[in-house]
Amino acid sequence: MHCAAKKRVVKSEDAFTIKTWQSHGNIELEGPKSAGSLTTRPTKPTNFRKFYERGDFPIALEHDTKGNKIAWKVEIEKLDYHHYLPLFYDGLCETVHPYEFFARQGVHDMHEHGGSKILPVIPQLIIPIKNALNTRNRQVVCTTLKILQNLVCSADMIGEALVPYYRQILPMLNLFKNNNLNSGDGIDYSQQKRENIGDLIQETLEHFERQGGEDAFINIKYMVPTYESCMLN
Amino acid sequence: MSSAEILKPKSMVRPKHWSEEVENAYRFQLAGYRDVTEYKAIHNVEDCERWPDSGFVKKLKRKEDGYFYYYNRTRECQDKDINKTKMYSY
C-alpha cells in the first residue's frame, strides 16, 4: 500500500548552480535571465541642466514660449559654436521640461543658422551623441536620431566628417534597428508620430549613406550588418 | 517710431486659408509686430532677414525686449493658427 506513487514536487532552479548539479536531473531548469540590453539606463545630471539653471545660456528662460520658440539674447551667428553646441547636445539626455525642450530647440536653431561653423565642432559632438543613445531611453533615442538626420543635412561635408565616428554612434542603432511593432493588420500610431525607432534608424542610416560620400556604405555595413544600401539598389 | 504711429492700418481681416502672406504675418505677430510695415518703421531697416528660397521671414528682433526669434525655412503657421493671424491693410 505504501508503494502508492508519491506526488513528485518539481522545483525550478537556475542553470549551472550546485543545486542543479546535485539534483541529478530532478529539477526543472529555468531559462536564462534577460540581459537587459534594451532597458533604459539611468542618467546622471547633465552639464546642460547646470548651465541652464545658472543662467549661462544666451536664451530667455521663459517657460511659456509662444509657438515653441527660443528667444535668443544674442544673435546665433555671433555665438561661439565650440562652446555652446556641445553643451546643447549634452542636454539631449534630458527627458523633463524645460531642459528637454530648450536642448532640442537650441540644437535645431544652431543647426539651421550655423552653416560652416558646425563642421569644426563635429568631434566635440560625438561623446554627447553617444551618451544620449546609450541611455536607451525611447524618447531620447528618437530625438537624437531626428537631430542626427538634421545634422547631416545642415551643411556641406558634415556627412563625410561623421564617417570616422560611426564606430561610436552606430552600435546603438544596430541594437534598436529591428525595434518595430509587429501589429499585423493593426495601426501603429508611432509611425504617424515619427516615434517608431526602427523606422527612424532606417531613415537615419539612409541619410548617413547619402551624405557620407563613397566610404559611407561600407562603414555603415561594418557596424550594422543588416543594413542594405539605399543607393546601390 | 514716429512713422509707425503715422501708418495706422485702415482695416483688418482674419484669413481663412494659409498663404505666404499669412505665414509672414504670423511670424511678425509672434514677435510682437503688426506686420512688416511696423517692423521696418521701428527698426529703420529696408527689410527683415528672409530665407532666400521661400522668402519667409528668417529672423526678427522681438518688440518687447529686443531678443531674437529664428524661424524655420518651411511653414510654421499651423492650421489652428491661421484664423488667429491678422492681415492689416493700409
UniProtKB/TrEMBL annotation, chain A:
Q: Give the signal peptide range.
A: none
Say which domain of life the source belongs to. Answer: Eukaryota
Q: Which Pfam families match?
A: ParcG
One annotated GO molecular function is: Hsp70 protein binding
Record-linked InterPro entries: ARM-type_fold, Parkin_co-regulated_protein
Q: Which PANTHER family match?
A: PARKIN COREGULATED GENE PROTEIN (PTHR21207:SF2), PARKIN COREGULATED GENE PROTEIN PARK2 COREGULATED (PTHR21207)
Report the protein name in the record: Parkin coregulated gene protein homolog
Naturally occurring in which organism (per UniProt): Lingula anatina (Brachiopod)
What phylogenetic lineage does the species belong to? Eukaryota, Metazoa, Spiralia, Lophotrochozoa, Brachiopoda
State the encoding gene.
LOC106167238
UniProtKB/TrEMBL annotation, chain B:
Domain of life of the source: Eukaryota
Alphabetized Pfam families for the sequence: Meiosis_expr (PF15163)
Instruction: Give the record's GO CC terms.
Output: nucleus
Family membership, please give it.
Answer: Belongs to the MEIG1 family.
Name of the protein: Meiosis expressed gene 1 protein homolog
